[in-house]
Write a structure and sequence with these properties.
The complex is a heterodimer. By secondary structure, chain A is an alpha+beta fold. Chain A is built from 40 helices and 18 strands. In chain A, the strands form 4 sheets. In chain A, strands 13, 14, 15, 16, 17 and 18 form a 6-stranded antiparallel sheet that branches. A 5-stranded antiparallel sheet of chain A has the order 5-6-7-10-9, with no helix packed on it. In chain B, a hairpin with a 4-residue loop joins strand 1 and strand 2. The C terminus of chain B is likely disordered. The chains are: A alpha+beta, B alpha+beta. Strand 1 of chain A pairs antiparallel with strand 8 of chain B, so a sheet runs across the interface. Chain A: Keywords: Cell membrane, Coated pit, Endocytosis, Membrane, Protein transport, Transport. Chain A: This is AP-2 complex subunit alpha.
């Protein structure tokens, strides 16, 4: 197909583009591009000076290649040369190249700035505009420094052409956004406000963007703009569609300027001056009236422009939140849009109504549309519209309609898109709690939630139902009955088992009178799920069993038998085994009184802010739940439940969290006050899991130890990185203790779900993960985890960190070696030459020494080597070795069981690029391990 | 404020990119990839707006080309759609029945036209006449500059 090249043709460029388009394969394209790059390079390097046209053509080709996605690393100088050309067309291409290939190369920026300076002072409006565009495009600090004071002058000068004023206003706006400190307010500011009165609509349109931004930052200084904006708006709104000539867009007068004016007014409270306010209200009414008039054109552009102004006016009305009449009219207007045939309008109406629902004047009016919104949730084809409908239902929910809305949301959940399920679950949970007058309804709702969308029910949600049941004794019997019934289902979600185990363990007695749910029936029902559950759930069930022994002495024999069987008492999981052993002993030794005291019903939980609400806030950003908060303060205060979050360490939570090698978490409350870090016997409680994954697992499950060796001599840095995830670590060690901060960064824009981490240690180390990792990691977010490590005795194997999460549905499984090496527990020891050699001789048994001769892999620079040895943790001893080229170090490794003295000698041979490394330690396994580790560092 | 404008074909080939804030090339490539997959996956007759991170994405298809605009939260979606439309009109007026090939072969012109219309992520001039006049006069300047290079050519 022929393509016409208008203006100046660059035949060479067009031929090149055609060639690229005719390439049959990516390889052919790359080949053609490389040929062209070589050609351009030789032209640029050639002795013959290029004329302006050729320069322009080649620069343009480079630009095209760059835009195809290839890197361009030359041509910048030629582009800068074009800037200083007197020919417009060459200058223009030069500026385009600079704008597209912005480079922070400061040398180049200086040259560019020179050219810009010349053009700005040229008084040639087209040249000035090009220069201003370039500043706005690059927007770098150097440019701001050079021009921030010059541009305001151009903007307000009496003799500046309109087009230059427009460019100057937007250029200044860009600089103000990037370097606000360099744009100084001054005499020009008041004159800028008066640009709102400018005769040229284009100037007003450009200037108002600048004024809005300045007003947001310095409202007082710019408040005169309010009355100016109102009168300008009033003139536009009342003008006939033809009055504004080319600024009328599809019969709508100046839609962009109108919206900008309405937006500017949203930076301020309603005008105090009665006349101004009256005029503004009149404008808003006119806009609302116009929405009811028949359209002047069938074109979608007409209705879009008209409705854009309408939506902006409604935003202003909501912002003022003081004119009940206007608010209700706005709501009715949006109500009409809810059923409009244009999907876009339905979407925007739902979105805008969400904010209206939070105003006390219009809340009731919004509620009248409930049926339409529910219908939208059920029938909209577009998931983004359904999402908005769900948001609006959430916002309009109050005590009067909560049951209906929650029921609709629950039924929608069954078919909801996976992407919004978790958020829906949180919303249902919050509404159910917030508006629960009758707690049996609340319990039903949450159990339904677990049944319908168990995978998306986060810990916060099921913790919360337990907290509430514990705190409200009027619902305990009902909860026990309901959960008992729910557990009858052949396949029930593990979260249901958790809730069931907990509630029956506490309140099973309330339903035990009925022979259909006698103690043994209850126990058998729970135990039938046991083998299908994960370790944390099993741990929780074991605790429920011991509680059963207390509640129902008749179950004692059966339960003791279960506890006694090999699969419990010899379970390879330390946590389960310990529970089985302890509970068995407790049940056989303790008297009934002691048992009753130890296994007493859980005390009520202290009241705190709902953890679920906090979670939703985090998920959706601060704006999203403001509606709910507002309701809290305005209407619903005092309605919150008598339960609250129990803080991060209650034993219940620890037991349930798969990511925590669970400490002695239990239902008993015996250790409920003990911080997680003090709980013993947690080391490697998930060892089995990790082994099963790390071994035969698929590619992604294999142990990755690339990063491991880089951390022998340093404690901080990036341990691992792929396209999805970055893991950074920071660690510190003292004596035989260490603390490691792990930072997990989600590099994608998509949320990671079910994010869990486990650490397994060799027997010589103990580790605790402190705190709980959120199972959701938002796109772009980073979460932190703290790991405490204790070195019991010397070791060679590193702890393994296993990370699992879902990314877009696919399970990611990753196992890394954590860089905890024996040298981390070094204490440096300073000693004199004489002492050193004396000890060296003492460690003369052959197995105490380890030696390696190896080739240098890294720089043999003295400072580099010294830094590494210091990073190793030993003391670097000067003037000890008779040969000053050699390095000598001493240190003591601190473990819980013993201290190991170590001496090191490193002899570099620069000529041969070789080292000889000798280690002598009081324990032979340490010499060997240190030697292995260090031989790979130099 | 607008953050970026992307033009890409139904096959996901990028035809034009304009960025209004300073971001790294790597980040740009990531955004381009995400936008093309996200927008191309949309069903017909769904709404033209998407929520993406902290931005509103407004897109519209014209013949074989998708125009995709990333705007900040306080921007008006409907007007963003009309910004796209106005740009299409400007291209159309300049090229006369603009098609994808015009933009491929005259990408620099497409940039120049865009720069007359938008600047720094804001609207500079909404009047079609004024923008067209500016473009025409710069074409005239080019002709004056060095008529020896001026030629209208046809390529097959």
């Amino acid at each position: 197909m022929p393509a016409v090249s208008k203006g100046d043709g660059m035949r060479g460029l067009a031929v090149f583009i055609s060639d690229i388009r005719n390439c049959k394969s990516k390889e052919a394209e790359i080949k053609r591009i490389n040929k062209e790059l070589a050609n351009i390079r030789s032209k640029f390097k050639g002795d013959k000076a290029l004329d302006g046209y050729s320069k322009k053509k080649y620069v343009c080709k480079l630009l095209f290649i760059f835009l195809l996605g290839h890197d361009i690393d030359f041509g910048h100088m030629e582009a800068v040369n074009l800037l200083s050309s007197n020919k417009y067309t060459e200058k223009q291409i030069g500026y385009l190249f600079i704008s597209v290939l912005v480079n922070s190369n400061s040398e180049l920026i200086r040259l560019i700035n020179n050219a810009i300076k010349n053009d700005l002072s040229s008084r040639n409006p087209t040249f000035m505009c090009l220069a201003l565009h370039c500043i706005a495009n690059v927007g770098s600090r150097e440019m701001a420094e050079a021009f921030a004071s010059e541009i305001p002058r151009i903007l307000v000068a009496g003799d500046t052409m309109d087009s230059v004023k427009q460019s100057a206003a937007l250029c200044l706006l860009r600089l103000y956004k990037t370097s606000p400190d360099l744009v100084l307010m001054g005499e020009w500011t008041s004159r800028v406000v008066h640009l709102l009165n400018d005769q040229h609509m284009g100037v007003v349109t450009a200037a108002i963007s600048l004024i809005t931004c300045l007003s947001q930052k310095n409202p007082d200084e710019f408040k005169t703009c309010v009355s100016l904006a109102v009168s300008r708006l009033s003139r536009i709104v009342s003008s006939a569609s033809t009055d504004l000539q080319d600024y009328t867009y599809y019969f709508v007068p100046a839609p962009w300027l109108s919206c900008k004016l309405l937006r500017l007014l949203q930076c301020y409270p309603p005008p105090e001056d009665g006349a101004v306010k009256g005029r503004l209200v009149e404008c808003l009414e006119t806009i609302l009236n116009k929405a009811q008039e028949p359209p002047k054109s069938k074109k979608v552009q007409h209705s879009n422009a008209k409705n854009a102004i309408l939506f902006e006016a409604i935003s202003l009305i909501i912002h003022y939140d003081s004119e009940p009449n206007l608010l209700v009219r706005a709501c009715n207007q949006l109500g009409q849009f809810l059923q409009h045939r244009e999907t876009n309008l339905r979407y925007l109406a739902l979105e805008s109504m969400c904010t209206l629902a939070s105003s006390e004047f219009s809340h009731e009016a919004v509620k009248t549309h409930i049926e339409t919104v529910i219908n939208a949730l059920k029938t909209e084809r577009d998931v983004s519209v359904r999402q908005r409908a769900a948001d609006l239902l959430y916002a309009m929910c109050d005590r009067s309609n909560a049951k209906q809305i929650v029921a609709e949301m629950l039924s929608y959940l069954e078919t909801a898109d996976y992407s919004i399920r978790e958020e829906m679950v949180l919303k249902v949970a919050i509404l159910a709690e917030k508006y629960a007058v009758d707690y049996s309804w609340y319990v039903d709702t949450i159990l339904n939630l677990i049944r319908i969308a168990g995978d998306y029910v986060s810990e916060e949600v099921w913790y919360r139902v337990i907290q509430i049941v514990i705190n409200r004794d009027d619902v305990q019997g009902y909860a026990a009955k309901t959960v008992f019934e729910a557990l009858q289902a052949p396949a029930c979600h593990e979260n249901m088992v958790k809730v069931g185990g907990y509630i029956l363990g506490e309140f099973g007695n309330l339903i035990a009178g009925d022979p259909r749910s006698s103690p043994l029936v209850q126990f058998n029902l729970l135990h039938s799920k046991f083998h299908l559950c994960s370790v944390p759930t099993r741990a929780l069930l074991l605790s429920a069993y011991i509680k059963f022994i207390n509640l129902f002495p008749e179950t004692k024999a059966t339960i003791q038998e279960v506890l006694r069987c090999d699969s419990q008492i010899r379970n390879s999981d330390v946590e389960l085994q310990q529970r089985a052993v302890e509970y068995l002993k407790l049940s056989s030794i303790a008297s009934t009184d002691v048992l009753a005291t130890v296994l007493e019903e859980m005390p009520p939980f202290p009241e705190r802010e709902s953890s679920i609400l906090a979670k939703l806030k985090k998920k959706k950003g601060p704006g999203a739940v403001s509606v709910t908060e507002l309701e809290d303060s305005k209407r619903e205060s005092g309605e919150l439940n008598g339960a609250g979050e129990r803080g991060p360490d209650p034993s219940v939570m620890a037991a349930s969290n798969a990511s925590t090698p669970s400490p002695s978490a239990d239902l008993l409350g015996i250790r409920s006050a003990a911080p997680v870090s003090n709980a013993p016997a947690s080391a490697g409680s998930l060892l089995v899991d990790v082994f099963s994954e790390a071994g035969p697992a698929a590619s992604s499950g294999a142990v990755n130890d690339d990063g491991f060796l880089r951390f022998v001599c340093k404690n901080n840095g990036v341990l691992f990185e792929n396209q999805l995830l970055q893991i950074g670590i920071k660690s510190e060690y003292r004596q035989n203790l260490g603390r490691m901060y792990l930072f997990y960064g989600n590099k994608t824009s998509v949320q990671f779900a079910s994010f869990t981490t486990t650490v397994s240690c060799p027997g010589e180390l103990q580790s605790h993960i402190l705190g709980i990792v959120e199972p959701l990691v938002e796109g772009g977010a980073q979460i932190q985890q703290v790991l405490n490590i204790e070195c019991l005795t010397d070791f060679s194997d590193a702890p393994l960190l296993n990370i699992k999460f879902r990314y877009g549905g696919a399970l990611q499984n990753l196992t890394l070696k954590l860089p905890v090496t024996i040298n981390k527990f070094f204490q440096p020891t300073e000693m004199a030459s004489q002492d050193f050699f004396q000890r060296w001789k003492q460690l003369s048994q052959p197995q105490q020494e380890a030696q390696k001769i190896f080739k240098a892999n890294h720089s043999m620079d003295t400072e580099v080597i010294k830094a590494k040895l210091l990073g190793l943790g030993m003391a670097l001893l000067d003037n000890v070795d008779p040969n000053p080229e050699n390095y000598v170090c001493a240190g003591v490794i601190q473990t819980k069981s013993q201290q190991v003295g170590c001496l090191l000698r490193l002899e570099p041979n620069a000529q041969a690029q070789m080292y000889r490394l000798t280690l002598r330690c009081s324990k032979d396994s340490v010499s060997k391990r240190l030697c292995e580790l260090l031989a790979q560092q130099f | 404020m607008m953050r970026f404008l992307l033009l890409f074909s139904r096959q996901g080939r990028l035809r034009l990119q304009k960025w209004y804030t300073a971001i790294s090339e790597r980040e740009k490539k990531k955004i381009i990839r995400e936008m093309t997959t996200m927008v191309l996956a949309r069903q017909p007759r769904t709404c033209n707006f998407l929520q993406w991170k902290d931005l509103k994405i407004v897109y519209k298809r014209y013949a074989s080309l998708y125009f995709c605009l990333g705007v900040e939260h306080e921007e008006n979606e409907l007007l963003a759609l009309e910004i796209i439309h106005r740009y299409v009109e400007l291209l159309d007026k300049y090229f006369g029945n603009v098609c994808e090939l015009d933009i491929i072969f005259n990408f620099e012109k497409a940039y120049f036209i865009l720069d007359e219309f938008l600047m720094g992520g804001e609207i500079q001039e909404t009047s079609k006449q004024i923008v067209n006049r500016a473009i025409e006069s710069s074409d005239m300047l080019q002709e004056d500059d060095h008529s020896e290079w001026y030629e209208v050519e046809l390529f097959g």
